[in-house]
Structures are given as structure tokens and as C-alpha cells.
Amino acid sequence: MPPKEVRDRYIKLKGAVHKYRTAYHVYDREDISPEALDALKQELVEIEKEHPSLVTADSPTQRVAGKPLPGFKKVTHQIAQWSFNDAFSEQDIHDFDARVRRMLDGIQPTYTLELKIDGLKVVLTYEGGVLKTAATRGDGIVGEDVTHNVRTIESVPLMLERPVDVIVEGEIWLSERMLKEINKGRQKADEPLFANPRNAAAGSIRQLDPKVAAARKLDVFIYDVAQTSEASPKTQYEELQYLRGLGFKVNSHFELAGSVEEIVAYWKKWQKKSKAEGYWIDGVVIKVNEHDLQERLGYTGKAPRFAIAFKFPAEQVTTVVEDIALQVGRTGALTPVAHLRPVLVAGSTVSRATLHNEDEIKRLDVRVGDTVILQKAGDVIPDIVRVLTELRPKSSKPYRWPKRVAECGEDGSIERIPGQAAWRCVAKNSFAVVRRKLRHFASRGALNIEGLGISTVDALLEEGLVAHFDDFFTLREGDVLELEGFAEVSAKKLVDAIQKVAKSVPFSRLLAGLSLPHVGEETAILLAGNFKTIDDLAVADEETLTAIDGIGPIVAKALVEWFAEKENKELIKRLKKVLTIHSEKISRFNLDILPLSGKTFVLTGSMASLGRDEAKEKIRQLGGSVSSSVSKKTDYVVAGEEAGSKLDKARELGVVVLSEEEFLKLVG
Question: How confident is the model at residue 588, as a pLDDT?
């Protein structure tokens, strides 16, 4: 008998999966994302693997998703409908291939690779080449008769090229463009919006009035022959060509693979290319190509042994909060961070997620022990978007904001920043704050001192060799030799690198490295373009600062207060003694004569011909500015390989998207 905590978790998981999958598959309601539902089901599978005695006939893992809605005519499928088992990693595919070869006594099959379209499965029955019925998958045995709506889909042939009796399977889908149009209409009518194209396709095909389905311009891809009165193709690849020959619309991106390496290469390629298509793709379907080998492999209780769905890395998954800790930032601000059970999301393993501030914790009501939905879209930092309270342990307690934090100086005092949701250390120069400031000062985003990484900065601080920014530039080889792991050559190399930077520091880099309140890379560049020296900036008043386009009253007030503090004035004096600070090449006063003047760019993904910093510099040299987020004010989004959610946002807002080639042409 498994431990009680395992049994309790399993029972709660079963209930949650059943609830969410019923909403999704039966009522076309997306209470949580498909990716989050997949994550819950996968955890259920893992528990059942480890504790087989828990498996019961009513487990969601033991049946095909969905059942007919009341009110629709029922259709009993002549050929049972199956769902695929899922793979989430390259190792899963290696295991699948090994399992197939083992069951085939060592025979190495070829595989057909097809895109997994995120839509609604449909089963079409033709008699004498004429469409007789169209049905949803339902529970795999009985589906719903949706012939009246499917007949409105232009890509579904009402009559085939030959008078054949055939049953075929495919996926009904809706384009993203049509989804936007439909949602605009629903918003005007004060109706709930469809969450995604799959949700909209399912809702459209289940309309009682065929005119509604016709107006939504649904589409379909056919991918399988369940039964035919003609000679059956001998392979899956030939089957797709056979379907084309009958007049069905077949997705053209299918390929043959002879090895796991080729499968993975196809999967990776379509991860990058999928967003360029007009329909949603959530993975790759892998099938043993040879039909005689498919028959030898057969089926399990719910899925074929000869096929598997290789899902793209999920942007939403579920995991468990193991702890909530406060992280001290370089300005003394406190950020609550959730420590998570490690989980794979969007292609990388994540064990931390920011909770932003006290108000966000209260809004989510997130607690230690909670099961949460974690989201990571493209290059966006992981974020907890929801707590699944039905899985909450009975012993959980609401998170209470502490009165003191050990890293905030001797007494650990903290305070809430007036007018904000953020908290900060009362002591402005606690060890934790100083450490983060020094790390940032030397980092790539600031002075970019080669060899002065996090561990070296920490070691220098621990040994008392540095306490302020200017201390880096007074270090000598003998000082560095005191650190563990440094010899004469490596010590000299580090000191030389520090001195090299000291001889020529761009004004904007220095401003970015000082940890000025509310000043990031772009604001630092803006300030450096409007003031010749740091002394000019230090005496600027709030009125002068807010006159600069891009500098608001909050930033201006914070800067004036920072430069007014005595310790900061002394710091600037010391830095001027050890650094040669040079002004920026571009003055913000004459930007109007440059070709990209007033244009705002956002970069996403990677470019083959140049790095992101180099691309930013090219934009700035031509008078443009770079932002980290897409908004209505963005002029261009430059989309490289593996572009993230910023590309989706650009399309949503109608922002011009440039390829790498178009961007290079624009910047000359």
C-alpha cells in the first residue's frame, strides 16, 4: 500500500484532471490551459507507474478523452478511435524507438513525421465517394453527428475523385486571423472570448445553425484512412498521398525519418517554424511507416503502440511550491521568490519563479505546498499564473510577510516603499545589497569587466578587498593572489582587464552600473545622450530631467535624491579619479537628423549574423531606441530564430515584424 500522502495526492489529482478534461473535451471550455492539463495528467501517469496498485478503471489515464454532448445525435464509430500517448523529451523518443524495435524483434522501421495540429478531430464517412456523415471523436466509440456543419467547410469534399467507400480521420482547425475576427465580434456582443483556435473550432462545429459555422471559415487537414473499399496503401507515407489523390486536403509538411536523430531534428525545426503557419501546431506525430509493422505492434487499451505524439515544450506546466523566500536586490528592494519542485517548461528546467510583491502573493493566495500553474512564454521569465486550490494540503497556511530580513543589515529592518507595493531594506548598504551592486557593476550589462564574474566579486567582498565600486580599480596583483584559485598569471590577467576598462568607460555604461533607482540600460543611454558629463547630470533638477522625452517624474525625483546624498557625491569623486569616462557618440539633441530617429525597436530570438548587443548598438547609432517589451508605441519587432511571445504580441497589435535580412537592410 503506497504512503497516505501519495494516496491523497493521487485522489486529488484524479478529481482535478477529470474536472478540467471534461470542461476542455466535452464542453469546449478551457478552465486551465491544455499544457497545464497535460502536466497534471503526466504527474498522474508517473504516480501510477510507481504505484500500479492505485490504478482503477475510472482513472483519466485509462480512457480516451471526451463523450457526446446531450442534445446531439449520437454516431457509433465503425472503427474505434484512439488517442496517442505523449512524449515530452528526446529521451522519450529514444525509449519509444527502442520499445518498437524490441517488439519487432530488432527490425528498424522507418517513421512518418506529421505536424500535430491543435484542432478538433473529425471522422468522415463516404459511401460511393459521397459524404454521408461527419462525427466528432467523442469517447472513441460514440461521437456526435456534426455533418450539417462540416458540410460548410470548403476544404471538405462533398464528393471524392472516385466512387470509393472510405472512412477518414482529420483535424478541423481555425486560423489565428479568423479567431481575432470572431473574438472582436464576441467582444462587441459582450460574449466570452474564445481562448484559442482549438476552442473556437470546437465551438463553431457544435453550432446548431450551419450559417454560424460557415461564417467562421473553418478548415481541415485529413491524415488517416480508417477503412477503404480499395486496396489499402502499404505505408503511412503512401496513405497521405492516397488521401490527396481522393481530393482531401493533406498538410504538406510530412516527412520520412530513418532514425531518432532525424525525428528530433524535424521536431526542433518545427518548434522554430510553427508560429509562421496560420494554424496552431503543438507538436509532431510520429508513426511507424510500414502498415504491416503497425499491425504487428497493435494497440494498448487506449493508444496505438506504433505511434506517439511528440509535444513541443509546454509554455504552461504545473508544479509545487516548496518554499517562499525574499531576495534582496541591488537597490535594497525585496522580491518574494517561489522555490519550486523543478519542472521542464518551454524547453528549460525551472526551480524558481518571482512572486513580484506582497500584493501579488495576496492576489494569488499562493502558499507553501500549493500546486500552481507556471507559465514561461518564449524568453519571458517564469511566472505563477494560478493556484489550483483543490490540490492544496489541509495543513497549508497563508504566507505572512516578515517584519525582519536577515540580509538587511544588523537588525534586519524592512519598510514598505510609500505609494508602492514593494518593500525594501531600511539599511541601504547591507551586505546583501552591496554584493548585488558590485556584481552588477562588473557584469556584461554594465562595465563588462572580463574575468570579474559573480564568484570572484563575492570572494573579493568576503576578503574585504572591495566595498565600493572604485575599489575594483585600486586592486593589485598581490591583492588578487590572496583569493583561492588565483596564481600569478591569472591574477595579472584580471588586474589588466580591470585597468583596460578603467582607461575608457562609456558614460552610459557607468550610469547603468551605478544601480541608480529606476535606471536600466535604455534609460542610462538616454541620460548619457542628454548630459555631457556625470557632473552635469548630478546638478540637474527635476524640471530639467522631465523635459527629456522618456524620463518621467518618478525617475527624475529618484535621480535628484540619489545625487543629493553625501555618500553618493563622494563615490562620484572617487570614481572620477580612477576612471576615464567618455561621452556618448550620439547626442540626443540632434537625433532628428538620423534615419531611425524616433523609432522604437524590440528584439526577440537570435540572429545568425550579429549578437543582440551589436544589433542594439546599430539601432542607437542611427537614432533609434530599443525597448524590452512590445506595445502600441513599438515601431518594429526584429524576429530572429526561436522568437518568443514578443512576436505573438507584435502580430496581435499589428506592429511591423522584420526578419533578420530585412533588419540588416534597414540598418545598412
Answer: 46
